Amino acid sequence: MLEGLKRLTGNIRNLRLGTTVATNAILERRGARVGYVTTKGFRDVPFIQRGNRKFHYDASWVKPKPLMKRRDCFELDERMMADGSVLRPVDEAEVLAMAEDIKAAGGVDSLAVNLLFSYVTPDHEIAVRDILAKALPDTPISISYEVLPKWKEYERASTTIADAFVKPIVSRYLNDLGTRLGERGGIENVAIIKSNGGEMTTAAAADTPIHMTVSGPTGGVVAARHIAAQLGVGNLVTFDMGGTSTDCSTIVDGQESFTTNFEIEFGVPIQVPMIDIRTIGAGGGSIAWIDKGGMLRVGPESAGANPGPACYGFGGTRPTVTDANVILGRISPDNFLGGTMTLDVAQARSAMETIATPLGLGVEETAMAIVRIVTNNMTGALRSVLTERGLDPRDFSLLAFGGAGALHAADLMGEASIPSAVVPNHPGQFSAFGFIMTDARVDLERTVQMTSNRFDLDRANEVMNQLVTDALGNLKAQGYDTGLSVTRTLELRYLGQNYELEVPVSFETFDADTVGTAWAAFHDQHKARFGFNIPREVIEVITFKVTAVSARETPKLPTLAKNDGPPEPTARRQVHYEEGPLETAVFDRAALGDGDVIAGPALIEEPASVTVLRPDQNLTVDSYGNMIIRNN
Questions:
Q1: Contacts of residue 548, Cβ cutoff 8 Å, sequence gap at least 6
Q2: Which of 422, 420, 423, 424 shows the shortest CA–CA distance to 630?
Q3: Quick check: 247 and 279 in contact, CB under 8 A?
Q4: How far lies 621's CA from each of 73, 526, 570, in Å?
Q5: What is the pLDDT of residues 375-404, one digit of tens each?
Q6: Would you say domain 440-550 falls under CATH 1.20.1250?
Q7: What is the full DSSP assignment across 230-255?
Q8: Predicted pLDDT of residue 8
Q9: 106 vs 358: which has the higher pLDDT
Q10: Where are the domains of the chain?
């Protein structure tokens, strides 16, 4: 990234950065040594975790370990009760003695403080933090009330530990980035993209780095929201296919879908608000292989960038999805990356023969089978964000991006029963486009339990108003003070249920009338999601949530001119489809104009992607250059 910036001339006003530094540190478990501070008797909560298992009948399965070691757990003899009353206060002398124990143990890189019932009132956590900050001035401290003030002790512990785990690494990364950007000069503002699709300052990122956990993939979903507005459609399902994985998400009624139900691996949750993105191991580099039963499989193992697919000529010998697309004629070996890289078709065919021969199939038949299998795998990812959430695929358009998204969009439409697809401009760089369309955003939440038959209006207003004040204050402290807006939601469930639904609150003040609209909205949403509701059942309020947004300046996008006549193909070649090999027209996307229509079969090539149009489909170019695919 920095090398690319060096090549740009002139001043850059704003730099928005999506980074995987926090993600990689967690996934690779190369973060800081964390000291865990908790209430006496609860040091083993991060190790006990939950009673569920990933594989019910696998006796060899081992529960994932937390991001810290038991020898680095420390207990304090304090106790806050569930109603906010104090059973045992914080003893400053005990905290100072614990600080000495931490030093004697060889020191830790950061501290995670998670005391019992801190989400009810944070007084004890704040007191412990302040004492430790004086005793260990060079040790960053994360407290659960600031990271995740929600109930469920284990989830709060795991999230706070993860924040402390990456905090020193992110701080060093951001300091180094600031130094190197300062050497370049000319950049006025640097912002970091959060997991919720908003931006924050580098200082805010250093304070709460856990919000960077899935920073990178969010850009495509943010950009999808703008494309939905541009097209005048409410519902899009995003399909971001790269070299190793495929990410899917939704835009419903013009808005992204969010979640706090995220796990870095099974049983190790991180519950900060983030865009709901589902990922599977299916990409252009996914390797095809034969299992013990003699069945053809694709992924999740990937050839990566080096050696990469066999056709790259970098030493890869195993067949991949990209090799299959080259063999089928969908990717031109002479026009890959705009002609800057020539692909080795012979090497792709040689790799494909290693599985075609055992299967008793021809090379082209095997390549087509690979494409069909990976299409089926990706259809499963689409269903996980659509039908599993009660959404009808027929109400959505597929937004295909990433380097390989446009190659497979046409096949996915039929498999997933989605009536249309959109391929945006520069699909390979679409997530980066989303970064420049982000707003500054702060999500705050707090667990305060109530029920619909015993709802405390004054307490509800107090909690919600405090969240609004804190969220707006957070934005203003970062320098975001224009275009401010606030949305409010509640996490609700029927009394006795174990999972909640997030219900928007359209009013600013709770009273006898407005709260009734929240209950009605929950009943409606429950029926839409699960197919039934229980109108007279007691509703339980679990969490109050607030989102504050500062709208940022976004670029005005150019429009295309109309061409004098219909688009002309630049070439024709044989391409394999499920119907068999067909002569296919090849078009240069850069030459297309507003309103151009192309009938399949066809290929539309651009430097970093290829759009495949099946024989039973047509494509229309809109005024912004988006290509809309529909079935005939």
A1: 441, 442, 444, 468, 471, 472, 474, 475, 484, 485, 486
A2: 420
A3: yes
A4: 60, 39, 17
A5: 999 998 899 899 888 899 999 999 999 989
A6: no
A7: HHT-S-EEEEEE-SS-EEEEEEETTE
A8: 60
A9: 358
A10: 21-176, 286-368, 440-550
Beta bridge partners of 575: 582
Binned at pLDDT 50, 70 and 90, residue 485 comes out as: very high
- Which pair of tokens denotes residue 308? 């990469």
Residue 132 has pLDDT above 90, yes or no: yes
**For residues 427 and 380, what is the distance between their CA atoms, to the nearest angstrom?**
22
User: What phi and psi, each to the nearest 5 degrees, are found at residue 503?
Assistant: -115, 120
User: Which strand (E) or helix (H) includes residue 258?
Assistant: strand 258-259
Going by pLDDT thresholds of 50, 70 and 90, the confidence category of residue 27 is confident
CA-only gyration radius of the chain, Å: 27
Q: pLDDT of 269-317, one tens digit each?
A: 899 889 988 888 888 899 999 999 999 999 888 888 788 999 999 999 9
Contact 430/400 with Cβ under 8 angstroms?
A: no
Q: Please, is 102 exposed, middle or buried when counting C-beta atoms within 10 Å of its C-beta (0-12, 13-18, 19+)?
A: buried
Tell me the H-state helices in 33-152.
Answer: 45-48, 92-104, 123-135, 144-147
Q: Are 397 and 420 in contact (CB under 8 A)?
A: yes
Alpha carbon of 157 to those of 60, 112, 506: distances in Å? 26, 8, 32
